[in-house]
Amino acid sequence: MENIAHNTNLSGKALWTGRILSGIFILFMIFDGGIKLVPLDIVLQTSAEMGLPATVGFARGLGILALLCTALYAYPRTSILGAILLTGYMGGAILTQLRIGNPLFSHLLFGVYLGLIMWGGLYLRDRRLRALIPFN
């Protein structure tokens, strides 16, 4: 039991790195959800190019979903649930990029990059996650 407690201790640098990574991710998701709520013309054009419904209702629905999941991620008591839900959201984005044949590193893996930032930030700032997945 003592070993688990030791592995879940945070240094100040790790905690702040986690907060910064999480903050960057949260800001990106607020931007992404926000442009879908309006929605900007580029959102509707991109949806059409991806074979998704290019409607205001569809864009707003995605924006609301993204913002709700991001709020769960941002709130410490529900951050792990939010991360799990956002992983599913990113998976859908990755699948859509794969389906239409977009470039690997710039488009297809963008959701993976976001997921790494999201989970990395959470891992560095949340003792519960480090206790659940200890890297020793």
Total helix count? 8
Largest sheet: none
Unreliable stretches covering 5 or more consecutive residues: 1-7
Q: What share of the residues lie within helices?
A: over 70%
User: What is the N-to-C succession of helices and strands?
Assistant: HHHHHHHH
Distance between the termini: 14 Å
Beta fraction? under 5%
Question: Class by helix and strand content?
Answer: mainly alpha
Total DSSP E strands:
0
Radius of gyration: 17 Å
Shape: elongated
Give the averaged pLDDT, no decimals. 89
Structure description:
It is a single chain. The longest helix is centred in the N-terminal third of the chain and has 26 residues, at 12-37. Helix 2 crosses helix 7 (110-125) and helix 5 runs antiparallel to helix 7. The protein is mostly helical and 136 residues long. Helix content is 79%, strand content 0%.
What is the fold's blueprint, element by element?
Blueprint: H1 2-7, H2 12-37, H3 41-49, H4 56-74, H5 79-99, H6 104-108, H7 110-125, H8 127-132
Helix pairs in contact: 2-4, 2-7, 4-5, 5-7
Summarize the structure.
With 136 residues, the chain is mainly α. The chain contains eight helices and no strands.
